Amino acid sequence: MSVEPRINDRIRVPEVRLVGAEGEQIGIVAIAEALRLAQAADLDLVEVAPAARPPVCKLMDYGKFKYESAQKAREARRNQVLTVIKEMKLRPKIDAHDYETKKGHVVRFLKAGDKVKVTIMFRGREQSRPELGYRLLQRLAEDVVDLGIVESAPKQDGRNMIMVLAPHRTVKSRPTASTEPAPAAAE
Q1: Secondary-structure percent of the chain, ordered helix, strand, coil, rounded to 5
Q2: Which segments constitute the Translation initiation factor 3 N-terminal domain (predicted)?
Q3: CATH (one of 3.20.20.70, 3.30.420.380, 3.30.110.10, 3.40.1180.10) for 85-169
Q4: Contacts of 122 (CB under 8 A, 6+ apart)
């Protein structure tokens, strides 16, 4: 079944509740009368509520209606925020300098407003010491606490331990918040 509403001759019911072009209630009329009114006004008869008894139809320019609804859908897609998850992989026996480098990447991702999935990979005997990975993830979370929060606590997943960090909601809005009080103080 198509998702588009039935229009004009495709409406196969004996009578409909008719709504005029300006939104005024015309009432329950025979389908032939509704089609005649639509043709006289040079508009289409569009079924807007097919489940109602009798179905509700409206007089409108269907082409214009489809165009406007497509524009609204396009605008909604443009305004939606796309969540990006970046991944950072670490090892339990990471060197201090390597840790700082990886932490810098995590900081950069959080400042950009992206979520970060931090993965600790265990190999061989390292799997018998998951507390090392847990401590490393806790240390990373404490180091970036001013930029992000732990969305998903560290958990073991086979040979890996995973934690997800999300940026604070206020990170993106800080520049606008700091510029607003300045004009108020000048007044």
Answers
A1: 45, 30, 25
A2: 7-76
A3: 3.30.110.10
A4: 92, 130, 133, 159, 160, 161
Per-residue pLDDT, 87? 93
What are the helix and strand counts (H, E) for the chain? 6, 8
Computed over every residue of the chain, the mean pLDDT equals: 85
Homologous superfamily of the 8-62 domain (CATH):
Translation initiation factor 3 (IF-3), N-terminal domain (3.10.20.80)
Please report which helix (H) or strand (E) contains residue 155, including its range. strand 148-157
- Whole-prediction pTM value? 0.52
The single residue listed with the structure tokens 């008869």 is: 45
CA atoms of 123 and 70, how far apart (whole Å): 52
Hey, where are the domains in the chain? Answer: 8-62, 85-169
Q: Cis omega (within 30 of 0) on the bond before 181?
A: no
Tens-place pLDDT, residues 128-185: 989 999 999 999 999 999 998 998 899 998 899 999 999 987 544 444 444 444 444 4
User: pLDDT: is 83 or 47 the higher one?
Assistant: 47
